[in-house]
Amino acid sequence: MAHRGGVADVLWETRREKLLRALRDVFGHQGFRGKQEEAMREISSGHDALVVMPTGGGKSLCYQLPAVVADGVCVVVSPLIALTEDQGFSN
Predict the structure, then answer these.
(1) Of 28, 45, 60, 74, which shows the fewest CB atoms inside 10 Å?
(2) Higher confidence at residue 73 or residue 66?
């Protein structure tokens, strides 16, 4: 990810602190893993992000955490029924 500098960095630090607070309080994790922080920066800045990680790499958190801290609705499209059920979105 390219360094943006200036106002973008200040805005990111504010969003990052909010994300880290929710990460600890809601999910019980102390910090980001792998490329999660990079994905969070893009997503929380309103950009699209394609997150490719191995199973257990923390992909789900990349959409769950921004949804927790944002006002509004999060729509998740998952092609796998088993994954959807595993993530707790089933009825």
Answers:
(1) 28
(2) 66
Domain ranges for the chain: 7-86
The token pair that represents 55 in the structure block? 């199973």
Token look-up 């950009």 returns 47
On the 0-12 / 13-18 / 19+ scale of CB atoms within 10 A, 65 is: buried
The answer to whether residues 43 and 62 touch, using CB atoms and an 8 Å cutoff, is: yes
DSSP H helical ranges for the chain: 7-27, 36-44, 59-69, 81-86
Q: Which CATH class is domain 7-86?
A: alpha beta
Which pLDDT value is given to residue 90?
54
- Predicted TM-score (pTM) of the model is 0.72
